[in-house]
User: Which sequence fits this backbone?
């Protein structure tokens, strides 16, 4: 591994080989060289970051050690509220908005001594799979700057892939952490729903949204997750009990584990090279001692349809607060109603408007039962499928994305095709379960391929156990050229 | 034709919890604008709600006091509509599983008790306050709106009656009875002027004797019991006149205009009625276990109905029990402790609701804090009971005790009001009166029996009320019947 | 099966001031998406809806305790229009 990880940076910091300010400077330097092509960030908080890096150094010198993230440059997806630092969720409707409060995860990172580099680009309000729906311009894939980094946490994935941050937080609703992680060749995790506070996360779909880490390695992922998760009294959906140590089984291997291969997540629409790489990894897991079992999740085929009713329905209410009255953009009108309608039509991009209309329709009188109500039934059925499956196996595996990174512009005109790129990542959030994407190699065009490991609720330890073995077996250590040029 | 009004009432009760429904901001009336606001009640991006346990227990208490069923499990819903004073542009409310349902409230109108059914009581949050500037009190004439979100997120309980009322008087009685009940529970300050208690009336009319319901109109903006009664009265007349003039009532919301004394249509935006309710995904289900419900029930104070029954069982007649039930807590406490000190319940009740209430009013004193101990009242009543003082002297003794002159006994002595019951001590006074009224004596001997009363009165006067009238009566008769020369 | 959509009504409910041309293109896209989404109707409706918390959480409350509110000036600084401590909006409905 010729790339600096959080774990390694921590060791160097503590042995005095490097300072937090130096770590920050190299991150900022990478950003400086790459942003014009990658556009991973919407805001870089240079002053704030330097100040906290200096503080981190003086604290360490003074014997104050805040733990694994102490002095480590971390990037935040721009849908997390940061006091006094512009937070837009990549929407023009929030241009210039300076929150008066920090999201819970932001507070926890600060307490952990992390150095917050800046706010990364995303699809507006996290609605998309390519960052092309950003209100401030697309981000590009470090492995091929003509292609998308995936989305919606594309900026965070790209930043970690090129090293303009050693780790980043993203948010995952239907795959928004795992799919860009897969397309950018990094590790991305959606934790169990309720384990990471959503307080201060600008809501897309409240029953699905979960904040999670994007990192270079599985070990780093456990370090970042451990720092942000745990009960938060400000989030009524936050799990109040003690959480497992996600890193407890990193070295345990997969001998004797039962690994289920989801038969429905393959076939038509999946790129042969992706399927081949995933099949090969499954074989190697078997060789490493795992019992590989084919498992069927019959209703998973309906997951995409259910997701594209439930998420927009919740979003239609979550985004109602953006009305030009208390903050953000205002387009004037002679009545409140006109002012609101003009502000929203002007401030929201096409995909957001599309989903608000979709969700409003799915909830409206006469259609609720056939659409939203029925989608909730499918959700219950999918949970039942998972429960059945997890009686036979410890984890489920699949590709993270049916395809590698696609060319910018290829799917913007075809929403449905864009939605289909979430086919593998949607089932876990519908059930509230954790899932991880681990890079396992490059295809013939040199584009990363991601491998997804899904686990039952609160099954993070076994999820990471398998992910760590996948990482060892893959030995993935390729670096995007642009990053080599940069460092 | 003869028309029957059908009226249902929706009441919104603001709870007086210390903090708001879903955030820690203070619940206080009259704070400077936008000083009690936070990310949650201002709907800043990313903020989340967390329900206030005290508010949930308050609505359970209200439901139990109204004989409602408390749902074993209940959930919050989002009620979606855009309005400038609703920061999220949805209200967290309840839809198909309210915390409380199927209760009733007994009201008294014109001496008869009527039972009004309750549909439900559900938990929700209040909106912010809009002030329309450059307006004549009429929303659609406003030039701009000033928004204060201090009230946004204050816990609100909505109580919906069944359409069981048939007159404006019943509507008023219902609202008043409900108000005093909620006040007794101590969960709201129920101030109409401050909007912590608000009613809307659903009014329709139908030909008398018919069972189907007519088209209902929702009447809003009544801020006193009087205006509720007037508004309902007006709306009933409006609908009847309309129908009899060959028109038909349209389902709408109408605004009560206090000055003009009329309701006018609010021209609500079409389509705004589709609230697209769905389960609030930021909150988890509420489970009201029997243990929890019982715990809340055990905290309920004695409610008026129970109190009335208890007084009647103690031997008070219905009307006296009614007056006492409606008396201030301070006066009721005085009654309870006097009885505990051995006072006879009926006379204790009479003195508390009569003399003592009167004295407090005359002296414009707070009826919740009575400057008299139950033991003192009991002692006073004992003096009258034993005949140590006359009941008329008792009133004077009470004045003395309330004026802090000492115990009833001491006051009676000091003001020298102890009754003279010893005949030898009274004979002189009687003889003196008989001598001064020969005519009366003559009338008596001519068989004018009732003149005795007059003579007794004269003796009482000459003894400044201290003589025992029974004894005086005997002595006079003895004299006049010549059994004693 | 094609889905009927009163797009103007939906846009009104969602407070989106869209031109006829925009409504036209959105209704077409929604039609395609909803036809795909309508597949959820193939599931037998015997299953009861699943909107509960995946970890089965219930009864999550805060105690009735006050927490400090935000600084008014910091909050109002984000507003498009304010007047002595208030947020300002036009009248709810058109004049007359
Ligand atoms: Mg209500
Ligand atoms: Zn608040």
Assistant:
């Amino acid at each position: 591994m010729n790339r600096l990880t959080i774990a390694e940076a921590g060791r160097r910091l503590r042995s005095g080989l490097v300072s937090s300010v130096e770590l920050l400077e190299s991150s900022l330097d990478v950003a400086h060289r790459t942003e014009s092509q990658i556009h991973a960030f919407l805001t870089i908080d240079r002053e704030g970051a330097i100040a906290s890096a200096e503080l981190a150094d003086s604290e360490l010198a003074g014997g104050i050690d805040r733990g694994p993230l102490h002095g480590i440059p971390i990037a935040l997806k721009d849908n997390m509220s940061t006091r006094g630092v512009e937070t837009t969720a990549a929407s023009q409707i929030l241009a210039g908005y300076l929150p008066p409060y920090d999201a819970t995860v932001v507070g926890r990172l600060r307490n952990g001594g992390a150095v917050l580099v800046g706010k990364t680009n995303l699809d507006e309000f996290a609605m998309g799979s390519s960052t092309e729906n950003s209100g401030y311009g697309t981000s590009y894939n470090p492995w091929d700057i003509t292609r998308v980094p995936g989305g919606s946490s594309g900026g965070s994935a790209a930043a970690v892939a090129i090293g303009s941050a050693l780790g980043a937080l993203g948010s995952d609703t239907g795959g928004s952490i795992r799919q860009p992680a897969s397309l950018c060749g990094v590790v991305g995790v959606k934790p169990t729903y309720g384990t990471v506070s959503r307080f201060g996360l600008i809501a897309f779909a409240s029953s699905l949204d979960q904040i999670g880490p994007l990192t270079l390695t599985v070990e780093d992922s456990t370090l970042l997750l451990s720092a942000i998760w745990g009960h938060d009294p400000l989030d009524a959906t936050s799990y109040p009990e003690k959480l497992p140590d996600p890193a407890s089984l990193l070295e345990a291997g997969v001998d004797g584990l039962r690994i289920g291969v989801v038969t429905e997540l393959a076939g038509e629409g999946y790129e042969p090279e992706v399927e081949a790489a995933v099949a090969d990894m499954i074989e190697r897991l078997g060789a490493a001692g795992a019992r590989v079992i084919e498992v069927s999740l019959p209703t998973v085929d309906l997951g995409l349809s259910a997701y594209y009713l439930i998420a927009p329905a919740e979003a239609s209410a979550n985004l109602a607060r953006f009305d030009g009255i208390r903050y953000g953009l205002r387009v004037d009108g002679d009545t409140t109603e006109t002012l609101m309608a003009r502000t929203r039509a002007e401030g929201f991009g096409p995909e957001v408007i599309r989903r608000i209309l979709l969700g409003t329709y799915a909830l409206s009188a006469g259609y609720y039962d056939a659409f939203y109500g029925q989608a909730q039934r499918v959700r219950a059925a999918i949970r039942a499928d998972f429960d059945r499956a997890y009686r036979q196996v410890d984890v489920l595996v699949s590709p993270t994305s049916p395809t590698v990174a696609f060319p910018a512009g290829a799917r913007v005109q075809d929403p449905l095709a864009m939605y289909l790129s979430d086919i593998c990542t949607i089932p876990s959030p519908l059930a509230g379960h954790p899932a991880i994407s681990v890079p396992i190699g490059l295809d013939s065009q040199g584009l990363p391929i991601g491998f997804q490991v899904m686990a039952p609720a609160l099954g993070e330890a076994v999820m990471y156990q398998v992910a760590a073995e996948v990482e060892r077996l893959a030995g993935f250590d390729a670096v995007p050229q642009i990053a080599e040029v940069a460092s | 034709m003869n028309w029957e009004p059908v009226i249902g009432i929706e009441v919104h009760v603001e709870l007086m919890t210390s903090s708001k429904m879903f955030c820690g901001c203070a619940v206080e009336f009259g704070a400077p604008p936008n000083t009690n606001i936070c990310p949650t009640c201002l709907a800043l991006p990313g903020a989340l709600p967390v329900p206030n346990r005290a508010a949930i227990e308050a609505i359970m208490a209200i439901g139990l006091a109204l004989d409602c069923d408390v749902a074993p499990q209940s959930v919050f819903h989002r009620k979606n509509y855009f309005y400038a004073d609703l920061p999220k542009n949805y209200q967290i409310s309840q839809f198909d599983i309210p915390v409380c349902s199927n209760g009733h409230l007994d009201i008294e109108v014109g001496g008869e008790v009527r039972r009004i059914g309750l549909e439900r009581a559900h938990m929700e949050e209040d909106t912010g306050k809009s002030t329309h500037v450059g307006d004549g009190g009429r929303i659609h004439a406003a030039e701009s709106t000033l928004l204060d979100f201090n009230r946004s997120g204050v816990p609100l309980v909505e109580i919906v009656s069944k359409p069981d009322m048939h007159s404006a008087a019943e509507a008023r009685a219902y609202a008043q009875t409900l108000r005093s009940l909620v006040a007794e529970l101590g969960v709201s300050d129920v101030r109409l002027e401050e909007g912590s208690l608000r009613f809307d009336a659903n009014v329709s009319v139908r030909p008398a004797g018919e069972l189907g319901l007519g088209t209902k109109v929702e009447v809003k903006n009544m801020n006193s019991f009087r205006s509720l009664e007037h508004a309902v009265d007006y709306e009933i007349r409006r609908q009847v006149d309309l129908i009899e003039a060959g028109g038909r009532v349209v389902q709408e919301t109408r605004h009560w205009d206090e000055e003009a004394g009329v309701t006018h249509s609010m021209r609500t935006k079409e389509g705004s009625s589709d609230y697209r309710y769905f389960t609030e995904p930021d909150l988890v289900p509420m489970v009201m276990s029997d243990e929890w419900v019982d715990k809340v029930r055990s905290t309920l104070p004695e409610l008026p109905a129970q109190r009335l029954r208890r007084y009647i069982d103690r031997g008070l007649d219905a009307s006296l029990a009614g007056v006492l039930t409606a008396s201030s807590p301070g006066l009721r406490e005085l009654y309870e402790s006097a009885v505990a000190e051995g006072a006879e319940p009926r006379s204790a009740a009479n003195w508390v609701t009569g003399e003592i209430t009167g004295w407090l009013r005359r002296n414009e004193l707070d009826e919740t804090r009575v400057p008299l101990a139950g033991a003192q009242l009991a002692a006073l009543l004992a003096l009258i009971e034993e005949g140590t003082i006359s009941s008329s002297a008792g009133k004077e003794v009470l004045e003395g005790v309330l004026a802090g002159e000492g115990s009833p006994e001491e006051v009676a002595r000091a003001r020298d009001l102890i009754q003279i019951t010893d005949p030898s001590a009274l004979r002189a006074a009687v003889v003196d009166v008989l001598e001064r009224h020969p005519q009366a004596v003559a009338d008596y001997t001519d068989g004018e029996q009732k003149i005795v009363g007059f003579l007794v009165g004269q003796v009482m006067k000459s003894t400044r009320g201290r003589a025992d009238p029974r004894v005086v009566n005997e002595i006079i008769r003895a004299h006049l019947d010549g059994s004693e020369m | 099966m094609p889905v009927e959509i009163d797009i103007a009504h939906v846009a009104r409910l969602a407070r989106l001031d869209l031109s006829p041309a925009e409504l036209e293109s959105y209704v077409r896209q929604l039609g395609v998406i909803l036809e795909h989404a309508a597949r959820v109707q193939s599931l037998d409706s015997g299953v009861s809806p699943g909107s509960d918390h995946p970890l089965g959480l219930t009864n999550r409350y805060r105690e009735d305790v006050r927490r400090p509110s935000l600084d008014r000036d910091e909050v109002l600084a984000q507003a498009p229009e304010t007047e002595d401590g208030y947020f300002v909006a036009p009248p709810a409905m058109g004049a007359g």
